[in-house]
Design goal:
The complex is a heterodimer. Chain A is mainly α. Chain A is built from three helices and no strands. In chain A, α1 crosses α2. Chain A is globular. Chain B has one domain. Chain B contains 17 helices and no strands. The chains are: A mainly alpha, B mainly alpha. At the A-B interface, α1, α2 and α3 of A face α1, α2, α4, α8 and α10 of B.
Chain lengths: 85, 347
């Protein structure tokens, strides 16, 4: 049951965000605006570093976060009117 | 809760499977940066399982009342059910087009759709804005959910959890980022999906059995409805599919805003009209446009139908007695609702 909880309720979402964020920050910022447009150039190290940074920041955010529902409502609030059109 | 050696052996088996499968399946994708995010565009329908395995529902359930101990009826799910409209638009209108676009991230698409410096600025801004602050909020509630679960299971605190749970976040680094072959992710994510849904269904079955069956559960919920109606003057049932006309917690006007405006006007990861970054990530991974459409369809069916069905059934059976009015708590103490507490304890 513990493994189920860990595997099912946490890892799935964590890996989505932790791969998505470095993907956008590296592919769409670092490579696009920092002179790394060569598609054959590996960007694994920069992706890993951005993942570490993201993890540290998210840990700090977690420390100050009290309510999951409140965070969800915050996201919906700041996302209002910003859907891709 | 006291963990036995059997519990720890299951945990160890889980990590062994995760690590072993990653090592075995990692393959040649290590140095191909394109595989890191879209998975090499070689995936078939299994990507659809991964859609579901990777997507969030804790936040949605928390917001609809399930994460904070205050269940707000079945109709409370409309807080996130409204996203089904954008999800189905994504399936039938956009999933093939995303696959056809050939981009690596959805943010990259901004520079294709628009032109010039404004388009470049938009791409850069969205990359940082979505990549860091928004993702950190999302990761924050994901971490918090895990902390709350571990607080119940092994008694850690919010500040003590990293030290008390070695391997938790390190597991993510190891499996998802430092071994960035998405092809290997499919297998482990499929495993996690099966485990997760298996546990949810087991919870629902155990809860309903403890109460005495579906009919018994419905009659108990009807009692709660009657008690609440006498106490607050409210009407309707916790099982109602839509909120009551004069509902205090979701007035009809709010409900109408959800189903007519929010789904197309609000950014939410994976629920934008056309598909947000998380879902687009998996559409890029699909083998072809047909697989992209079918996998997205499966994700929506699993997320908006299967999950609520199993989770709401289990939640109704385990309805927290402490969240009920004082009069009902007295009857709980009298004993006839003890199966709720017993099953919660066992689970």
């Amino acid at each position: 049951m513990v493994a189920g909880v860990r595997g099912g309720l946490h890892v799935d979402h964590w890996d989505t965000a932790s791969t998505g964020a470095p993907a956008t920050s590296v592919n769409d910022f670092y490579r696009r605006f920092c002179g790394r447009m060569n598609p054959s150039e590996p960007t694994c190290v920069s992706s890993q570093l951005s993942t570490v940074l993201l993890t540290v920041i998210s840990a700090i955010v977690t420390f100050y976060m009290d309510s999951i529902a409140g965070a969800w409502q915050l996201l919906i609030g700041i996302g209002a009117g910003t859907a891709r059109s | 809760m006291r963990l036995t050696p059997l519990d720890w052996s299951i945990v160890a088996a889980y990590f062994t499977f995760q690590s072993g499968s990653r090592l075995l399946l990692q393959g040649a994708g290590w140095k191909k940066h394109r595989r890191v995010f879209p998975g090499g565009t070689e995936c078939s329908l299994v990507a659809g399982w991964d859609f579901d395995g990777r997507h969030d529902f804790r936040g949605r359930y928390a917001a609809s009342g399930y994460g904070n101990g205050r269940p707000k009826r079945i109709a409370g799910n409309w807080l996130w059910w409204n996203f089904v409209a954008s999800g189905m638009l994504t399936v039938f209108f956009f999933s093939r087009l995303w696959r056809r676009s050939g981009v690596m991230t959805d943010v990259e698409f901004a520079e294709i759709r628009y032109a010039g410096k404004p388009a470049a600025f938009l791409r850069g801004f969205r990359a940082i804005y979505l990549g860091i602050p928004i993702n950190c909020i999302i990761l924050g509630w994901v971490n918090l959910a895990m902390v709350k679960i571990l607080m119940l299971i092994i008694g850690v605190t919010q500040t003590g959890s990293p030290g008390d749970c070695p391997g938790d976040d390190r597991d993510h680094f190891l499996h998802f980022d430092f071994w960035p072959d998405s092809g290997a992710c499919w297998v482990t994510d499929l495993f996690q999906f099966v485990v997760k849904m298996g546990m949810v269904i087991a919870l629902a079955v155990a809860a309903v059995s403890a109460v005495g069956g579906i009919d018994r559960m419905k009659s108990k919920l009807a009692e709660i409805d009657r008690a609440r109606g006498l106490a607050s003057g409210g009407a309707g049932s916790v099982l109602s599919f839509v909120p009551d006309l004069n509902s205090a917690w979701m007035p009809m006007l709010t409900f109408l805003v959800y189903i007519s405006v929010v789904w197309w006007a609000t950014w939410y990861p994976g629920a934008e009209p056309g598909g947000g970054g998380y879902v687009a990530q998996r559409m890029f991974s699909a083998k072809d446009e047909r697989h992209s459409l079918l996998a997205t369809l499966w994700f929506n069916v699993a997320t908006f139908a299967l999950r609520p069905l199993a989770l709401d059934t289990g939640r109704a059976g385990l309805d927290d007695p402490l969240s009920r009015p004082a009069g009902q708590r007295k009857r709980l103490c009298a004993g006839h609702d003890r199966p709720f507490a017993r099953v919660r304890s066992e689970v």
